[in-house]
């Protein structure tokens, strides 16, 4: 199964250079400062979960990484590439070509799946590899079928998104993101829009991904048990900063910060 | 020379300036025709919308057909029909009035659809609550349905008013001396049509921009929850 | 029965009306997509240009435009025959109103769809052509249907720049026979029937577009 995903650089050299690095990043929406002097790094292959109260800026972190939102101050690098170009113009301070290059290393799985409703499942997964990576239809389909098999939906390839359950749609969305062979995969509350009985199948797919591949994963989730299982590191995020981070066992059993404790109490009940 | 104003053909600009007063007289006719036509369309459209909801099948179906027919045939031909056919049956109206009726009829087909949409958008629960309070059908319309409907339909109605305004030049073909009619007359006498026609275009453009801005404001001012009639 | 003798002439006029209407709808639709897409996707200069086009042709009366073109086109050396003038005028009108439909439908495509396309690194053109337009076009069809009927009705105005369409023929016959009631009733019925046919055609096109955009007919969860 490894062959369907991108080759990752070997772990030794990776430990030195983080694949994602936020340095003193500040992000504002008008007068509202969402990220305030934010520092955060993720090592290659690492699985990191962001937890925190609603409105604390977790999605914003992912959306900045996906170049869906610009930021105002500080530096952000992905695989060593800075997001801002020295003479970059526009809100992103970078050319379209530069953003294109950055995005070629990142994929994203959205809370509301965002599948293309007018394309079949297969087409959803093959469209980008064919159009953006320049794969032939046959190659793209080959890759797509492998991935659909991996998420357990090969038999649904000719269905349309509206004919699938939420859980199935989200699994297709995961396959769609993987088909671009990103080094970093972002998940923004991938199960929040799902009925409780469908959450398991999606978490199962993500869990397999996490355990079997050295893909770098950054997750935002409210599924605490799941976070504990799959993450190498959990970051508790509040008011645009990381309040506390560490191994999941420690964060969940012995949080040091009172704010973390409070939050965990409120979500774990 | 028209309405006591002489034209000055030295340059296009002096020409434009000299005929502006004449065209403004035409503008008042345009505005009157649109205002009267729209008032008629608002009343007639409501009548059609209510008749269409009649419990008597024949009435509802006939109304639906009439509305569809009015909506699917050109204003110009409807206008000719009224202008030439009515006198054959002994009804002789001034051209202006004929024009107003034609505008009102054509647009009543549109407004009745707007009313219908507005009425249908009222949640079922509102009708049921009114029934539970033992209100009559008429009281329900007056106190519940229409007040809630008004803020929703005002923007659409406003757009139809602007649309009607731009169709009033058609009345010039039955000798109503609104702006376009006057511009054509000036053209006939000076053999220079483009300046008067351009001026009419510009005046219409200004008029529609102002009206659209007005509708936009009105939309913001209107209370979303509804306007009580009493 | 006199009215039978009117029919051949009216039918000839109806053909002219049909030709002018269809040509204007086709050219106007192309203009509508160009201007609508320019408004949504164009840079500042391009979208402002498209906005000006839309506002000018929506803001000034069609009949004024037709007369204006009728007198202006020969001056710039284009001694157009009236039919061309009529089609140009109507097309510009359809294009302006249609561009609002296109713009509205493109803007109604959920932002999330654009974001998903961006996350997959699609370029702007690809996002527009493969993601946004196919979804938007289905939403445009009912409004374009209304615009088509509107165009048929407005085409009657070309009779005033001496094109021998249905309305023009009706006028001519009436002027000779003074049989107003019969002539205009026939004419109104003629337009009504043509509207019905046009409506039916637009429904068929809508169904084709829906199938072309490959939306599933029934959704089940
Ligand atoms: N486009 C925007 N314009 C203005 N404010 C925004 C925008 N997007 C997000 N915000 C604000 O930024 C803050 C952080 O939002 P974000 O979506 O990152 O929170 P979150 O941690 O993901 O919350 P949740 O758990 O509810 O998804 C919120 O206060 C939100 O209101
Ligand atoms: Mg969020």
Element string of chain C (H = helix, E = strand):
HHHHHHHH
Give the mean pLDDT of chain C.
91
The low-confidence runs of chain A, each spanning 5 or more residues with pLDDT under 50, are: 7-14
- Please identify, by name, the CATH architecture of chain C: Orthogonal Bundle
Largest sheet of chain A: 6 strands, mixed
Number of domains of chain C: 1
The average pLDDT value of chain A, as a whole number, equals 91
Could you please describe the fold and organization of this structure?
The complex is a heterotrimer of chains A (269), B (230) and C (221). With 269 residues, chain A is of the alpha/beta class. Chain A is 38% helix and 22% strand. Chain A has helices spanning 11-16, 58-65, 96-103, 121-131, 137-150, 166-178, 196-212, 224-230, 248-253, 258-268; strands spanning 20-29, 32-42, 47-51, 73-78, 81-82, 106-109, 184-188, 216-220, 233-238, 241-246. Chain A is globular. Chain A starts with 10 loop residues before the first helix and ends with a helix. Chain B is an all-alpha fold. The mean pLDDT of chain B is 91. Chain C is mainly alpha-helical and 221 residues long. Helix content of chain C is 82%, strand content 0%. Chain C has eight helices and no strands. In chain C, helix 3 crosses helix 4 (82-108) and helix 6 (124-154) runs antiparallel to helix 8 (180-212). The longest helix of chain C is centred in the first third of the chain and has 39 residues, at 3-41. The radius of gyration of chain C is 21 Å and the shape is elongated. At the B-C interface, helix 3, helix 7 and helix 8 of B face helix 2, helix 3, helix 6, helix 7 and helix 8 of C.
SSE arrangement:
The complex is a heterotrimer of chains A (269), B (230) and C (221).
Chain A: H1 11-16, E1 20-29, E2 32-42, E3 47-51, H2 58-65, E4 73-78, E5 81-82, H3 96-103, E6 106-109, H4 121-131, H5 137-150, H6 166-178, E7 184-188, H7 196-212, E8 216-220, H8 224-230, E9 233-238, E10 241-246, H9 248-253, H10 258-268
Parallel strand pairs in A: 3-8, 3-9, 6-7, 7-8
Antiparallel strand pairs in A: 1-2, 1-4, 4-5, 9-10
Helix pairs in contact in A: 4-5, 4-6, 5-6, 6-7
Chain B: H1 12-52, H2 57-71, H3 75-88, H4 95-120, H5 124-132, H6 137-167, H7 179-190, H8 194-221
Helix pairs in contact in B: 1-2, 1-4, 1-7, 1-8, 2-4, 3-4, 4-6, 6-8, 7-8
Chain C: H1 3-41, H2 44-59, H3 62-75, H4 82-108, H5 111-119, H6 124-154, H7 166-177, H8 180-212
Helix pairs in contact in C: 1-2, 1-4, 1-6, 1-7, 1-8, 2-4, 3-4, 4-6, 6-8, 7-8
The structure holds adenosine-5'-triphosphate and magnesium ion.
Residues 58-59, 188-189 of chain A line the site of magnesium ion.
């Amino acid at each position: 199964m490894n062959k369907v995903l991108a080759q990752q650089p070997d772990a030794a050299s990776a430990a030195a250079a983080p694949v994602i690095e936020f340095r003193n990043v500040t992000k504002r929406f008008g007068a509202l400062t969402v990220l305030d002097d934010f520092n955060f790094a993720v090592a290659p292959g690492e699985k990191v979960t962001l937890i925190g109260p609603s409105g604390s800026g977790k999605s914003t972190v992912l959306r900045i990484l996906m170049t869906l939102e610009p930021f105002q101050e500080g530096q952000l690098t992905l695989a060593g590439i800075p997001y801002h170009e020295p003479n970059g113009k526009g809100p992103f301070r970078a050319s379209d070509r530069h953003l294109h290059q950055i995005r070629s290393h990142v994929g994203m799985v959205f809370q509301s799946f965002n599948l293309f409703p007018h394309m079949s499942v297969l087409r959803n997964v093959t469209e980008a590899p064919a159009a953006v990576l320049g794969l032939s239809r046959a190659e793209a389909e080959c890759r797509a079928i492998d991935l659909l098999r991996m998420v357990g939906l090969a038999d649904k390839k000719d269905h349309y998104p509206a004919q699938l359950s939420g859980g199935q749609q989200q699994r297709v969305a995961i396959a769609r993101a993987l088909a671009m062979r990103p080094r970093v995969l972002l998940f923004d509350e991938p199960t929040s829009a799902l009925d409780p009985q469908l959450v398991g199948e999606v978490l199962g797919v993500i869990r397999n991904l996490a355990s079997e591949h050295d893909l770098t994963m950054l997750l935002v989730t409210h599924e605490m048990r799941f976070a504990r299982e799959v993450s190498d590191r959990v970051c508790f995020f509040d008011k645009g900063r990381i309040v506390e981070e560490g191994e999941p066992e420690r964060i969940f059993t012995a949080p040091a910060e009172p704010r973390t404790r409070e939050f965990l109490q409120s979500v774990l009940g | 020379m028209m309405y006591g104003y002489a034209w000055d053909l030295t340059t296009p600009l002096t020409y434009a300036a000299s005929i502006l007063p004449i065209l403004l007289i035409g503008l008042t006719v345009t505005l009157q025709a649109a205002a009267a036509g729209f008032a008629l369309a608002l009343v007639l459209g409501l009548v059609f919308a209510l008749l269409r909801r009649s419990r008597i099948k024949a009435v509802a179906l006939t109304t639906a057909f009439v509305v569809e027919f009015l909506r699917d045939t050109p204003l110009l031909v409807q206008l000719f029909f009224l202008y030439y056919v009515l006198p054959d049956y002994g009804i002789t109206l001034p051209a202006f009035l004929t024009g107003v009726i034609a505008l009102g009829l054509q647009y009543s087909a549109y407004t009745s659809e707007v009313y219908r949409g507005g009425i249908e958008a009222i949640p079922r629960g509102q009708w049921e609550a009114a029934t539970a309070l033992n209100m009559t059908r008429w009281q329900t319309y007056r106190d519940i349905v229409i007040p809630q409907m008004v803020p929703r339909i005002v923007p659409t109605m406003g757009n139809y008013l602007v649309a009607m305004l731009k169709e009033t030049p058609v009345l010039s073909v039955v000798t109503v001396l609104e702006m376009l009619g006057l511009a054509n007359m000036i053209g006939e006498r000076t053999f220079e049509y483009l300046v008067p026609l351009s001026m009419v275009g510009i005046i219409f453009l200004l008029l529609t921009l102002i009206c659209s801005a007005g509708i936009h404001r009105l939309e913001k001012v209107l209370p979303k929850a509804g306007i009580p009639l009493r | 029965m006199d009215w039978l003798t009117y029919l051949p002439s009216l039918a000839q006029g109806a053909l002219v009306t049909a030709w002018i209407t269809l040509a204007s709808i086709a050219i106007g639709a192309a203009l509508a997509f160009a201007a609508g897409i320019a408004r949504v996707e164009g840079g500042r200069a391009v979208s402002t240009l498209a906005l000006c086009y839309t506002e000018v042709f929506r803001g000034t009366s069609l009949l004024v435009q037709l007369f204006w073109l009728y007198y202006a086109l020969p001056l710039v050396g284009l001694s157009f025959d009236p039919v061309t003038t009529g089609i140009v005028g109507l097309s510009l009108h359809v294009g302006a109103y249609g561009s609002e439909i296109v713009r509205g439908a493109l803007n109604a495509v959920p932002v999330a769809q654009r974001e998903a396309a961006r996350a997959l690194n699609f370029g702007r053109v690809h996002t527009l052509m493969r993601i946004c337009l196919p979804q938007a076009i289905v939403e445009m069809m009912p409004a374009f249907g209304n615009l088509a009927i509107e165009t048929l009705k407005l085409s009657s105005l070309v009779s005033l720049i001496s094109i021998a369409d249905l309305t023009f023929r009706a006028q001519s016959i009436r002027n000779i026979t003074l049989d107003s009631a019969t002539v205009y009733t026939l004419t109104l019925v003629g337009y009504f029937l043509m509207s019905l046919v046009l409506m039916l055609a637009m429904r068929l096109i809508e169904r084709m577009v829906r199938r072309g955009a490959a939306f599933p007919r029934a959704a089940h969860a």
